[in-house]
């Protein structure tokens, strides 16, 4: 019997260019990917890849079956999605994707409360700063910042998150409190590296603190907060991340208050899925109730 799932592994290697990258994408081990490719090669009686120093390269026969494999994968994903979308029981799995910081600082506790209310719904939280593909069933629900750019999804704006400039009380005692945006160039900057360097508030602060000394740099949102708490310099971040950091103090809130819309999205085929709907309704209500730390009541 044909194992169509092997073609999923074949496409992952073809798209990623290496066994290790395909394994990371599929969230399996590299030997598993290698074994599934070998199985498919044996069944088809062809070699699918040439292993070159630059990575895995499709052979000529393999290039002929890429489109067929893509169609198989598309049909399998659509079948699973449509079946899931027709489920009416408040039971079964759902997968939520959101940024690392939002998941850890806000979403995780709400998921725990939701699990107490609906113990038969199994929620998986994918804390990832990369944008996952809902059409491919990499997740059922996405909570994203900013105007959605992906086509074919449905959802709504569920709130507005505010961003401010923060530093520790110890830092301000040692270096003084900036009285204007122009004063920021006299202070120390905690800089960012990808992926968090792509956040608009991080870019803004870098421009505002153009002549500042960079005390340190990080690519991790949690380290970003920890460095500010330890007095290393100033950061620009969302209000929900600092709600549990009493050491941090917001400054220049009248001069800098960046707002970012928060959206909750799903694929249209999931609109009729009862467990997806009840989770989205629950999160909307939690967001509505949680205005102070999340939606950005300005600091004095």
Strand and helix map with partners:
Elements: H1 5-16, H2 19-26, H3 30-44, E1 49-52, E2 55-58, H4 60-85, E3 92-98, H5 100-117, E4 121-127, E5 141-145, E6 154-168, H6 169-175, E7 188-192, H7 200-208, E8 213-218, H8 221-229, E9 235-238, H9 239-242, E10 248-251, E11 258-266, H10 274-289, H11 291-296
Parallel strand pairs: 3-4, 3-5, 7-8
Antiparallel strand pairs: 1-2, 5-11, 6-9, 6-10, 6-11
Task: Report how far the terminal alpha carbons are from each other.
Answer: 68 Å
Share in helix: 40-55%
Q: DSSP helix count?
A: 11
Which class of secondary structure composition applies to the elements?
A: alpha/beta
Question: Main sheet, how many strands, which sense, barrel?
Answer: 7 strands, mixed
Structure keywords:
two-stranded antiparallel sheet, 300 residues, disordered C terminus, globular, seven-stranded mixed beta sheet, alpha/beta
Please explain how this structure is put together.
The protein has 300 residues and is α/β, with parallel strands linked by helices. The chain is built from eleven helices and eleven strands. It has helices spanning 5-16, 19-26, 30-44, 60-85, 100-117, 169-175, 200-208, 221-229, 239-242, 274-289, 291-296; strands spanning 49-52, 55-58, 92-98, 121-127, 141-145, 154-168, 188-192, 213-218, 235-238, 248-251, 258-266. Strands 3, 4, 5, 6, 9, 10 and 11 form a seven-stranded mixed sheet that branches. A two-stranded antiparallel sheet has the order 1-2. A hairpin with a 2-residue loop joins strand 1 (49-52) and strand 2 (55-58). Helix 1 (5-16) packs across helix 2, helix 1 (5-16) packs across helix 3 and helix 2 packs across helix 3 (30-44). It is globular, with a radius of gyration of 23 Å.
